[in-house]
Design goal:
236 residues, alpha+beta, 12 strands, 21% helix
């Protein structure tokens, strides 16, 4: 009799341990170390491009793409700033701003592009909500069209949405489909009038509240109660 009870308790303990592992609390690999964006909050774009693994700001990983970014000194010498502001229960706003330093060439038809990805870190349960675009164009020097291609698959695609700003106008934000954890972004600045100048543009990512996941101790308690109940039923 004692032997049978011991076997049942052992079996129940193993089942609970297996269930906890299924929830991801057992055997979880430590997060890989990554450069912090906050340590490099204001840098020249070319320096950010040199971070081949990107950088992390809270739970957002930014990685720039050389293949889709204009490779000219007058563009790469602009500044990049990454910032965030958090609200309650996991809500928050994440921003990436590009500010020009030199004077841009004003030849009509000239285009500048910036490609990068922004991804929710594996340890986070937050979700993207919306993406918006803000553009600062010199009031006395209009003639700038800015487009933001937003994709869940590839830089330059717009399967999630396309934002267009004419001379600094603010387009309506684009909602991000549920389940998308990585966005592929391409910002494009086009000069449409001689002497036109853009001062800066900002990409803003808002996130929804985090998904509520019970604490490990709470899950263990639930599983333990379930195990005791099952054992009582067998005994009766």
């Amino acid at each position: 009799m004692i032997t049978n009870i011991s076997r049942r308790l052992t079996t129940g303990a193993l089942a609970i341990a297996g269930s906890v592992a299924a929830f991801g609390f057992a055997g979880a690999a430590p997060a890989q170390a990554q450069t912090s964006c906050s340590d490099r909050s204001l840098m020249v774009l070319s320096q950010f491009m040199a971070l081949t693994s990107g950088c992390i700001d809270m739970d957002k990983i930014y990685k720039f793409d050389a293949a889709t970014t204009t490779n000219t000194t007058d563009f790469l010498d602009g500044f990049i700033a990454i910032s965030n502001s958090t609200g309650s229960a996991g809500e928050g706003v994440h921003r990436m701003t590009y500010t020009r330093r030199p004077t841009f060439p004003s030849t009509i038809g000239t285009k500048f592009t910036l490609g990068y990805t922004v991804e929710i870190a594996p340890f986070s349960t937050a979700m993207f909500d919306q993406v918006s675009l803000g553009v600062d164009v010199a009031g006395q020097l209009p003639g700038i069209t800015t487009k933001k291609y937003i994709s869940s698959t590839a830089i330059g695609s717009n399967d999630v949405g396309l934002l267009t700003s004419l001379n600094g106008g603010t387009p309506v934000p684009v909602p991000v489909p549920s389940g998308v954890r990585k966005l592929f972004i391409l910002d494009e600045i086009e000069v449409t009038a001689a002497t036109a100048q853009v001062n800066a543009f900002t990409n803003t990512y808002t996130q929804k509240k985090s998904i509520d996941i019970p604490e490990p101790s709470a899950i263990l308690g639930i599983l333990a109660v379930a195990g005791v109940g099952a054992f009582a039923c067998r005994k009766s």
